[in-house]
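Sequence in, structure out. Go.
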Amino acid sequence: HRYYQHLGINKTGFMRWMRNKFNMKAMKTSGHVEHHKETLDDMTLDMKPDPILDTDPFRGTAFSWSVSAKMTLEIALQSYPWLWLCGWSFKASTIALFAAMLLHAAVWQTLHPAMHELPDPPLTYGVPGWSLKFLRSSGYFKFLYMN
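Output:
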């Protein structure tokens, strides 16, 4: 979260070396940092929105399919070596990765936009926000909302 969504990865020595060596640009924002800037303490959104989020109907609160794909790739690069060292096969690692990413996205999409009084993301945008709607009043979701 810190390195990807808050762009802390741009400050690491490895990424500085990569940018210098291969003339790469720094990673750009996905809107996550700007979303934090326009979220008020009561979780409503500021009436003076950040222009970067104007093209996003969920104002940085939900994962689009393209963001989900990037996150899956980033997590795959980090998790496969460790899972393989633990003796997991490629097939088992891939099933676990996709199941975990889908569950994470379903929880996020169901909880996060609703926290900011935004509608559920539809299937055309990303994992649908209505997928776990029945859990919104559960103790688990209340815990996530408070923390």
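Check: The radius of gyration is 17 Å. The mean pLDDT is 86.
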